[in-house]
Amino acid sequence: MRFIIWFGALLPIVYALIRFSVEIQPEWIRESFIFIEQFVPFTLTKFPTDPLKFSTDLSGDSAFWLLALTLTFTPVRVFLKLNLIRYRRLAGLFSFFYALMHALLFIGIDQEFNVHGVIHEAVTKPFIAFGMGAFIIMLTMALTSTKKLFGLFHSWHKMVYIAAVLIVVHYLMSHKTVTWDNLSMAGVLIFLLVLRLIKR
Ligand code: HEM
User: Fold this and answer.
1) What sections of the protein cross the membrane (predicted)?
2) Which residue owns the Cα nearest ligand 1 atom 10?
3) pTM of the entire structure?
């Protein structure tokens, strides 16, 4: 199981490396990707047209799905009586890792570490403020997720549900027009939150 989480969580990085190295790939690798593209809905043979947007979206989506995975372990234990809780921290830390990359791409590259620029964006675009709120919660959870500190900060980790709500809002508001695809992706997190309420 640990291997599956590592493997799945590292796939977005492999995908990004493939896309960014497309210009220097040997012919046989490019041929292989052209072959694979017939079967999977991924573009493997084109350099991203907007590399910053590509990286921000990829890291945001990866953080999102890994958070969804993290929230799945409790309902799986409650409803399916399958205890995989020991892998929850690993999935959560990977989710935080991608959230950190996502935030750094925006703050470091998009805003060039300009504090005023970041504050201005957060004030004028509420979806950025919601993302930051979720990120701060995830940061505190990652810092207190060690065996020693988790005992002390156990109740604080329930804040993950607030973070999930903030991320749903952040995700939906980041799109000018919300499509069924966006709604179904947000629906996954909402469904996991509802399962949590049923458990109570
Ligand atoms: C400091 C905190 C954050 C900032 C500044 C931020 C910034 C952004 C920006 C600027 C976009 C729009 C990118 C575009 O133009 O397409 C975006 C989209 C997104 N963000 Fe964040 N974000 C933050 C936190 C988070 C967190 C914590 C998550 C999830 C755990 C997240 C998940 C997403 C997702 C899924 C998208 C949509 C990506 C897509 O359309 O494919 N963000 N974020």
Assistant:
1) 62-80, 87-107, 127-144, 156-173, 179-198
2) 106
3) 0.94
